[in-house]
Model the fold of this input.
Amino acid sequence: MYQLQSPSKLILGWQCDETQPRCVNCATADAQCQYLASAKVASSNEYDPSRLARSPAFSNTDEANGTAAVSTPSTVGRMSPTWDIHDMELLHHWCTHTYKTMTDVPDQQLIWQTTAVTIGFTYTFLLNELLAIAALHMAICRPESENVWHTRATELQSLALKGFNSMEQQVDESNCVVVLLFSALVGTHLLGDRSRIRALASSSDYLDHLVSCVSLMRSIRGLVLQNHSAFLLQSSVRALMITRNPKPPYDGVPSECRQLTALITESDLRPSSIEAYGTAIDRLFWLFDLAEVPSQPHDTPRSVFAWPVQLTDEYTALLNQRRPEALIILAYYGVILHSFRNAWCIGDAGASMIRAIDAQLGSYWSRWLQWPMAMIASS
Done:
């Protein structure tokens, strides 16, 4: 089990998942992988953190003349020695197809199509992860060669994570944009990597995987959103931050979902747990209203990851402890995921999550899972 706790790194605990050519979990943790292939993946540790903080890539203006600053690839990274013609095909696939599957909002699509790619030429770990997502999408578009594309997706993500983890300084206004984009892509990758999911042996392993995904997406708050939201609202990715903001009592919440409030009042919980569960449920109701689910199906992930990033440290700790109340709340989030099942990177993740939680908790808690189970059974 490895734990990653550097200020600029994603914070997760995990076990080696035996993925070749190098376990993605171990690459994320920057740990020695016992299943590392003899043919080493070329290093992407090509960044100079001391120069990173001085990078003008995301500054609003140039201090000397007050005009928009322009960054070049030489500012931070250099061309990856591992890219080949197939990766250029992946870049083309991203810019013509995959970017449109990230969101159905035109302004947000433009960010993924152009802004993220442009930033990736400076921060090449971002471009590697972007290409990895394109490879996962290519595996679905070209199922006859899916194994080839899944392997390349793993290789590219290993390179991306190693490059990202080379950043040792705190996240600040000079790099919060790239960290936001990268974290969102990594969360999408872990949820959408069907080759890794198929390799999981049991529902318990799958639940561990999903909890890790939620914990990773939650880490975005600590890395970026908690301290830099105001800056991001004025940055080149501001369209990703602007959304409808429903207010209580959240008229769009299904009546069956509102029973979650009784889960807190009927359980013998510590005050800190009550507060954590209350916040998680409030944000869940907010997302039900925002996404208009389950009545409105979705073809892109769009806002589906907006719940994990708003969770508290206390809730994620309870989730990692597999506390029943935390898992039940997660199952209701599974209903939202299920409404996004037409998005290629989500698929049956919601249904699988609900079934895994039902298997974990057993009959004592079954009444709380009746509605989530009914929702996946009906579709």
Notes: The chain is about 55% helix and 0% strand. The longest helix spans residues 203-232. The radius of gyration is 20 Å. Strands lie at 2-3, 13-14.
